Amino acid sequence: TSWLKTKRRHQLLSKAPLAMSSALPPPAAIKIAGQDVPHGLQLTSDIRPPRSAAAPEQLGEICCGAPGALQWSAPARQVLGATASGGILQVQVVVFFRPLSNDRSASAELNVEDQSTLPNGVWHLTAERRTREADLGDEALAKTWAQAVKTWAYLEPRQLHVVINPFSGTGRGMQIWETVVKPVLDLSPHMVQEHVTTSRGDCTRYCRELQLQPLAVVAALGGDGTMSEVLNGLLSRKDAKRGDFSVCFVPGGSANAMAHLTGCGDALTAAWALAKGRLKTMDVFALHLGAFQADSSFAAMAGTEPKFGFLSMTGALIADIDIDSEVFRCCGESRFTAYAVLKIFGCCLCRCVAKVHSRLQYRYRVRWLPKAATCSLAEQSLMDARDLSKLQLRPDQPGWQSWEGDLTFFGAYSAPAISRTMHCARGTTLNDGTLNLQWKTPGGRVELVQQFDMMDEGTHLRTAEGQRNLTPTWHQADVLAVIVDHLEDNSKVVIDGEALPEGSSWCAEVLPQFVSVVVGSGPLAAFGPQGGIHSDAQVMATPFGFPADEACGLLAVAQLG
Predict the structure, then answer these.
(1) DSSP H helical segments within 374-425, as ranges?
(2) Which of 52, 210, 458, 504 is most buried, by CB atoms within 10 Å?
């Protein structure tokens, strides 16, 4: 329906780009920097229909200058809007450059559609905001063109909800909003509603009660914890179902793992991406606290609701370090390394008086349902999930496997990395419909430190060439669901950095491609082929070891209940 309305409104549905300029009054002359330039100001429209259930997108271009003597041009994807000052038309654009390059000249600018591999350690293109000017010599004419540029650059005004956590990371949330994000959104025709959080759980309550229109996007300006609250608010709504919600990660925290993975690793790129609204689908997972009974019925822990996540669930030594290192939060991400060394070596001195604090082995029973080579009934039931308050799978279904014993590391990952420096699930993608389950049985203390270094690079499971590299102490599987129980009372459980009640038994299952996420610049290598496990050969296609993805989905039309 949205596509047909756009078709009728623009009347520009040719496979070839069409000129819109004929409908606009032409300027008598154009000056740039006070100098007359060869006459010509043109908008071309190239509206691309959706490749799937998505909205159309403007891929045309604005050009200033005569053919062969072009003064400047900008693709619609990079145009933020336009204003008029006197008789001067000012077109606001975002330009992109190769990361780590000092060349910021026009010749070094990249088209945002450039999907080439980035240098190792770099997640997305470098963005800068620029103004393209043309003196049309008439204020009314300049205003007419400015309005036309805005209408041309945004086919469908949308509702944008921005949740701002002013306390996240270094506490610069409001500054980022007021100086970077808001000025970009003010140039668009979108309806923007901001909400500043005041306490823990505030944005979860806010998102649960939002009145969402079709095509609405909810953005979280903060860290991964802020988005976790937003996601839990949206997915705990009574009308929650697949494809209902679109979210955007605007970095304002410490790690900002998902913002980087989605190509929105800086505030300007995230603001541009939010304004333009190109999306990809992303898996999430539901974690239920409680235990399965002998008859395979599930007894939920009293007073708890399902928790929804998008990064990871961790336990054992990783969870201990994550939670206990909070006292060193002022040290940033280095707190994890410092506390890991302290726990592995320093705490062995106090193991006689603080056994829990110094332990390196943990008792676990793990059960999991592997992903089949073809779509199974279990996978289909996850795709068809309607009531998210209930588990879709049961351990009495065929195909479940189990392991029980002592371990040191435990994690189940929905993303290839959980920070910029820790690529612990190399080869996993955000939309492959699985959790990467991994655990390690006990070894020596020196080996543990070595394993942390390997986990940073993802080489504890794969070689540098992308081949599987499981040592006898590591276990790994791509799964649809996982059950963890028989824990000791003081064993920690962490979901996306948030601690759950210690010693809790739990079950988690994937909700494949359940949420749409706004994507920014770069190759977006954290997204793989839609709905499938990739081959080892694809894993090292980029510096991060994520499968390359050439196609990028467009904004999904929300079907609100």
Answers:
(1) 377-383
(2) 458
Q: How many residues does the chain have?
A: 561
What would the two tokens of residue 1 be?
């329906």
End-to-end CA distance of the chain: 16
**Alpha helix positions (H), 248-326:** 257-261, 267-276, 316-324
pTM of the model: 0.85
**Residue range 242-262, pLDDT digits in tens:** 878 899 999 998 788 899 999
Map residue 374 onto helix, strand or coil: coil
Neighbouring C-beta atoms of residue 277, cutoff 10 Å: 25
CA angle 82, 88, 94 (to 5 degrees): 35
The Cα–Cα gap between 192 and 157 comes to 10
Q: Is 118 helix (H, G, I), strand (E, B) or coil?
A: coil
Characterize the bridge pairing of strands 246-251 and 217-222.
Answer: parallel
Rounded Cα gap, residues 491 and 362, in angstroms: 8
Alpha-carbon distance of 474 to 376, in angstroms, equals: 27
Can you read off the two tokens belonging to residue 395?
């351990």
CA quadruple 556, 527, 99, 421: dihedral positive or negative? positive
Between CA 457 and CA 423 the distance in angstroms is 5
Tokens of 507: 């079950």
C-alpha triplet 437, 438, 440: angle, nearest 5° = 160
> Tokens 């007419």, residue?
144
Nearest Cα residue to 417 out of 284, 513, 311: 311
Burial class (CB in 10 A: 0-12, 13-18, 19+), 346: exposed
In angstroms, rounded to a whole number, what is the distance separating the alpha carbons of residues 268 and 271?
5
Query: What is the distance of C-alpha 310 from the center of its chain?
Result: 9
Q: What Å distances lie between residue 264 and 55, 307, 340, 436, CA to CA?
A: 21, 25, 30, 24
Instruction: Name the residue with tokens 């293109």.
Output: 125
With beta carbons less than 8 A apart as the criterion, state whether 267 and 181 touch.
yes
